[in-house]
TrEMBL record:
It comes from the Bacteria. PROSITE patterns: MTTASE_N, MTTASE_RADICAL, RADICAL_SAM, TRAM. One of its GO terms (cellular component) is cytosol. The lineage of its organism: Bacteria, Pseudomonadati, Bacteroidota, Chitinophagia, Chitinophagales. CDD domains: Radical_SAM. Signal peptide: none annotated. GO terms for molecular function: 4 iron, 4 sulfur cluster binding; metal ion binding; tRNA-2-methylthio-N(6)-dimethylallyladenosine(37) synthase activity. This is tRNA-2-methylthio-N(6)-dimethylallyladenosine synthase. Residues 408-471 form the TRAM domain. Monomer. It comes from Chitinophaga sancti. [4Fe-4S] cluster 2 binds at C184, C188, C191.
């Protein structure tokens, strides 16, 4: 498991129930309730599930008592998420006692690993559905309605759901995620994703462009191209294999939809950030200058045990290359402390690479093993918890200084900001993000959501820029 200090998952959204669309005036006789846990891919999958269920006559609800179908979209990356899901399933059993016809199902990454326990041993659910089996949900629901336990956790080498238009989950109407690929081939030894989501497969670029275009026409002004490893996107036309589209090609095509549509992407693997990608980013003003470049460790020995396929020296040269071609690019990272056999020397090497890279944002974890990973099978989790946590605290302290310095460098500068909404702290303030992915707040005045505004930075905290609008962008 990866326990984190700065959260890679949005903790405010963990367990969030799917909200009905404000513009949906259809009346439904059957209703579903769905909670999502984990990464943004899971939230995007819940939108796909909502679309499939809508075609079957199900409408969403945030009131579990009026639902005929309850679904939990689950995550296996973190133990905390699994514990929470089990607790929620126990609570739904009490609801089911009051409504025996209620069906309860588990979706997503926990499905394969825990199907036997959840179905047979603990008898907490009626259905278990893996992330590649959502098209079979209608048939599985029918099966469960007869009293049978319904299961489909088969992984696919083809499924991308490219013909399904997601029903947006509790959208702000400004930003949206567009899934461009599924699965991962990297086999990092600490990660369970290749076993829960299968091998990489890229979605037809034409369906991606159609989805992004539709979002823009509906008023959205930012899309994030989403995948476990977006930079390895590679689509080959099944009819004409001479037609291929790389990630750089795809990003350029999306950027060309409109200069008013901002483009971001998440998540990357350092080995796949090519010069071609960087040149496309430099070419288009509406492609945000921000790259997530996970380090994980600064020790070559630990990187080899993690199966990360690069060295610290190679990684630092990649950082240099990003800053050479994109001088003002924001860079974020992931760091794991206390991986198997990590020594104080290994830990200090991680600190050195962090100091060299000067990250704007970092997601920092201490390691504990997840069942089913290569590390769990091959290595002993032998670094004591107190040592892991002490090293994590040192990493966090180093990064806090870097983050504050990065924010302070922006004071006095003016940035083009896309307004995402009203600040949670004040109705008189708006918030948005710069192209470098830094949050900025400023007085509302006459500006509104979806506006592009020039904002001058007056001051900052370690996590937020504070400014004053100078005019429409």
């Amino acid at each position: 498991m990866l326990d984190q200090v700065t959260k890679v998952h949005d903790e405010n959204r963990q367990g969030e129930a799917y909200a009905p669309e404000a513009a949906d005036i259809q009346t439904y006789t059957k209703k579903f309730y769905i909670e999502s846990y984990g990464c943004q891919m899971n939230f995007n999958d819940s939108e796909i599930v909502a679309s499939i269920l809508k075609e079957e006559g199900y409408g969403p609800t945030r009131n579990v008592e009026e639902a005929s179908l309850v679904l939990l979209n689950t995550c296996s990356i973190r133990e905390k998420a699994e514990t929470t899901v089990r607790k929620r399933l126990t609570e739904f059993q009490k609801v089911k006692q009051r409504n025996p016809e209620l069906l309860v199902g588990v979706l997503g990454c926990m499905a394969e690993r825990l199907k036997a326990k959840l179905l047979e041993e603990e008898k907490l659910v009626d259905m278990v559905v893996g992330p590649d089996a959502y098209r079979t949900l209608p048939a599985l629901i029918e099966e469960a309605e007869t009293g049978q336990k319904a299961v489909n956790v088969l992984l696919s080498r083809e499924e991308t759901y490219d013909d399904i238009s997601p029903v947006r989950l509790d959208s702000n109407g400004v930003t949206a995620f567009v899934s461009i690929m599924r699965g991962c081939n990297n086999m990092c030894s600490f990660c369970v994703v290749p076993f829960t989501r299968g091998r990489e497969r890229s979605r037809d670029y034409r369906s991606i462009l159609q989805e992004a275009t539709d979002l823009f026409q509906k008023g959205y002004r930012e899309v994030t191209l989403l995948g476990q490893n977006v930079d390895s996107y590679y689509w080959v036309n099944p009819v004409n294999d001479n037609e291929t589209v790389t990630f750089a090609n795809l990003m350029e095509k999306v950027a060309q939809i409109s200069p008013l549509l901002r483009v971001r992407f998440s998540t990357s693997h350092p080995k796949d950030i090519t010069d071609e990608v960087l040149h496309v980013m430099a070419k288009y003003e509406n492609i945000c200058n921000y790259i997530h470049l996970p380090l994980q460790s600064g020790s070559n020995r630990i990187l080899q045990l993690m199966n990360r396929t690069y060295t610290r020296e190679w990684y630092m040269k990649k950082v240099d290359r990003v800053r050479e071609l994109l001088p003002d690019c924001g860079i974020s990272t992931d760091v794991i402390t206390g991986f198997c056999t990590e020594t104080e020397e290994d830990h200090q090497e991680t600190m050195e690479v962090m100091a060299y890279s000067r990250y704007d944002l970092a997601y920092m974890f201490f390691y504990s093993e997840r069942p089913g990973t290569l590390a769990a099978r091959r290595y002993q989790d032998d670094v004591p918890d107190d040592v892991k946590k002490r090293r994590l605290a040192e990493v966090v302290e180093l990064h806090r200084g870097q983050s504050l310095a990065s924010m302070q460098q922006d004071v006095g500068k003016t940035f083009k900001v896309l307004v995402e909404g009203t600040s949670k702290r004040s109705e008189d303030q708006l918030f948005g993000r710069t192209g470098h992915n830094k949050v900025i707040v400023f007085p509302k005045e006459n500006y509104k959501k979806c506006d592009y505004v020039w904002v001058k930075v007056d001051s900052c905290t370690s996590g937020t820029l504070i400014g004053t609008a100078t005019g429409m962008a």
